[in-house]
């Protein structure tokens, strides 16, 4: 009788294992620290301007990878050359992936940020907010979510246009990343792409644009930060757009009103985009909301 009972238990366990995938463990989203994120930004700003192809960008990349390795993540580099208004340039994306948990297609969640700063020859642009705040926050998100399955943290090079955004200028890193997914027939692996950009403003007012807008609002509400997020149409051109064009659900979280007073935007792409203009609290709000969004999307994928 005991042998028969053991056999039944084994059968039940095997059948249970073939059903819907288990929900990942809860994310300790409240551990996401704006202070830690700010410290990362200070380090990046300390490298000075770091546009595509610069030695300073190489130092920024080394720093980003070192932090990801500290979190127990392995990294991949996407190094490629593309034609730009200033001739061929080499670009360098950084990708960190958490453990794989099998469960069918549409499982991977990508969280992204660009880490290059815009090229200027007439001013010193360190990009504390534009590039720095989202990169520092993404590093902190990676620390907290490193144990979650099927999450990719992607640091894009070449988001900034060298002259003016067009099909031939800007978004090089994200366009290459999506084309690489297509080459590998891996587009259907991606459940969602979440982009962070310019999220350090002290007067935080995040525009949510793209698809997944309602999911972002749900996550913000769950984290207690709903009032900081609003929908303002889908006209924003940013690193989420190549994903949308490939049919991948993608959303951009961006505070594009960055200035000395509402509506002026007079800090954007100027020498005034410095550490004193950004807030650890703002980065913490966006970081914690993004972690709640990851949790929500993972539970949805697991059928819970």
Number of strands: 8
State the end-to-end distance.
Answer: 37 Å
Q: List segments where confidence is low: pLDDT < 50 over at least 5 consecutive residues.
A: 1-20
State the order of secondary-structure elements, H for helix, E for strand: HHHEEEHEHEEHEHEH
Computed structural class: alpha/beta
Query: CATH superfamily, called what?
Result: Zn peptidases
Mean pLDDT: 92
Overall number of domains: 1
CATH topology: Aminopeptidase
Strand order of the largest sheet: 1-2-4-3-5-8-6-7
Largest sheet: 8 strands, mixed
CATH class: Alpha Beta
The CATH architecture comes to: 3-Layer(aba) Sandwich
Oligomer: single chain
Question: How many helices in DSSP terms?
Answer: 8
Report the β-strand fraction as a percent range.
15-25%
Write down the overall geometry: globular
Explain how this protein is built.
By secondary structure, the protein is α/β, with parallel strands linked by helices. The two termini are 37 Å apart. It has helices spanning 2-17, 34-46, 55-70, 128-145, 172-183, 213-223, 241-245, 280-301, and strands at residues 74-84, 87-97, 108-114, 151-156, 190-197, 206-210, 229-231, 250-254. Strands 1-2-4-3-5-8-6-7 form an eight-stranded mixed sheet, with helices on both faces. It has a single domain (47-301), classed as Aminopeptidase (3-Layer(aba) Sandwich). Strand 1 and strand 2 (87-97) form a beta hairpin.
